[in-house]
Design a protein that fits this description.
This protein has about 450 residues and is an all-alpha fold. It has one domain. The protein contains 18 helices and no strands. The protein is globular and about 70 Å long.
């Protein structure tokens, strides 16, 4: 009877693990509208036209897009666009598979942690991680095809940091070097990967000689990546946001701090900026307390926490770097849904630490009850954040559907601004789509 009850419970947890993914897949296909945004037109169309004309060069692929150098995503997007007629589905599937890969990596890491802590029951925490990874709050990454560059860079960064944070071997180390290159030349936050990656190399157990050699190689390769990235780099100028021309950390430090706090809290409180501040404060106070408690009271090794500290630092580094160029716009931009992907790592790490306290504490003790309350609070907040993201996707679908119909009817560009969301392309870009039968025009005769 006990075995049947345990088996049934595991089946229930498995359902709750898969459910967020199924909901995300439904929303991707339901809300997908073949209307390229202005950003997609700027990133893709000029290069795609050059590929048709045979004039595409390495410099075109390596050039800046805002603060990014998305070399590898550009290759993939152009390849898919040529094969599919720039069907957005192919790009969205890349983002989806990246999210699935991230979830599987985190699930494996949690399993390794719990085994090392002599705890095998990971059923409760895995559905929560699934809810965070597949949250609809990050909806920009699942309706805008070009954001596969963010998801590609994020997957590479998470994979590399987890590789570095676990038992060391040379094959994994060189794999982490390669992943770091792809992360940087996919999305700008990959730059923080090379800074954060030094942490596990410094604290992971290995011989002193090997540590010095690894850090030396890491710094040399990372330095070369940085030098190449910033070769002929020009800081973007954004019309209408003069403060963005300065380093906001120095010109408006309060606005910068607000931006970073909102950025880090967005994944868990996408529906409330005030709640985001509160959660971030609790996280930064609670993480060191939780780790100290688990080491001193539960006799767990510090090595177990290296992956989660590293992932949290990557979230923090991403927030700090993004704030350098975006905080000058206004701090509320930190709640852009695409940033939730990066801040999610902080809350996954917090959730795992709270869960470790829960499963190692005496049942019904004060610590046990507080742990349950925290996990419930995190779950509810992520759930409501996902609901808000789902509503945004539906609203976006409604606006883009009307825009698509008007474009196909030949309505001139002056009428498109009513739909907002920077949804429409200038007329020249629309003419390119018509000429090569791409995107919304690929099946029009």
């Amino acid at each position: 009877m006990t075995e049947m009850r345990i088996s049934k419970r595991q089946q229930i947890y498995a359902v709750f693990t898969v459910l967020p993914l199924l909901v995300l897949v439904f929303f991707i296909f339901y809300c997908k509208i073949e209307v390229p945004s202005i950003d997609e037109g700027v990133l893709v169309l000029p290069l795609l036209e050059k590929s048709f004309l045979g004039t595409l060069t390495f410099q075109d692929l390596f050039s800046q897009h805002c603060e990014h150098r998305p070399f590898f995503p550009r290759l993939l997007i152009i390849l898919f666009a040529r094969i599919t007629g720039w069907n957005k589905t192919a790009e969205l599937m890349v983002s989806l598979f990246c999210a699935i890969g991230i979830f599987l990596l985190l699930k494996r890491q949690i399993k390794l942690t719990l085994i090392a802590a002599n705890r095998l029951d990971q059923a409760i925490i895995v559905p929560l991680v699934s809810l965070i990874v597949f949250s609809l709050g990050q909806n920009d990454n699942f309706w805008m095809g070009m954001n596969l560059m963010l998801m590609m860079g994020f997957l590479c960064a998470v994979t590399g940091l987890l590789v570095l944070s676990n038992s060391f071997n040379w094959r994994q180390f060189f794999m982490a070097l390669g992943l770091g290159v792809v992360a940087v030349y996919s999305y700008a936050t990959g730059l923080t990967y090379w800074l954060i990656g030094t942490f596990p190399l410094l604290v992971s157990p290995m011989g002193a000689r090997k540590r010095k050699l690894c850090i030396g190689i890491w710094l040399v390769v990372g330095g070369a990546v940085f030098l190449l990235y910033f070769y002929n780099f020009k800081r973007p100028a954004y019309t209408g946001f003069p403060v963005a021309k300065t380093i906001v950390l120095f010109s408006q430090p309060i606005e910068y701090i607000k931006f970073v706090s909102k950025y880090l809290g967005s994944a868990i409180a996408y529906f409330s900026t005030k709640l985001a501040y509160l959660y971030v404060l609790l996280a930064f106070c609670g993480i060191p307390i939780a780790i100290r408690f688990l080491i001193q009271k539960k006799a767990l090794s510090f090595v177990l926490f290296i992956p989660y500290i590293t992932l949290s630092l990557f979230s923090l580094g991403s927030a700090l770097l993004t704030g350098m160029s975006r905080a000058g716009w206004c701090s509320i931009m930190a709640f852009s849904s695409r940033y939730l992907t990066f801040s999610s790592l902080l809350w996954i790490s917090v959730s795992v630490l709270v869960y470790l306290i829960l499963v190692t504490s005496v049942r019904y003790s004060f610590v046990h009850k507080v742990s349950i309350a925290l996990l419930v609070a995190i779950t509810c907040s992520i759930f409501f954040s996902s609901i808000r993201g789902g509503i945004e996707m539906v609203e976006n679908r409604r606006a883009l559907s009307g825009l698509k119909e008007e474009i196909l009817r030949g309505t001139r560009i002056g009428h498109y601004s009513a739909y907002g969301r920077d949804a429409c392309l200038p007329e020249r870009e629309l003419d390119i789509l018509k000429k090569y039968r791409l995107s919304i025009f690929r099946i029009v005769r």
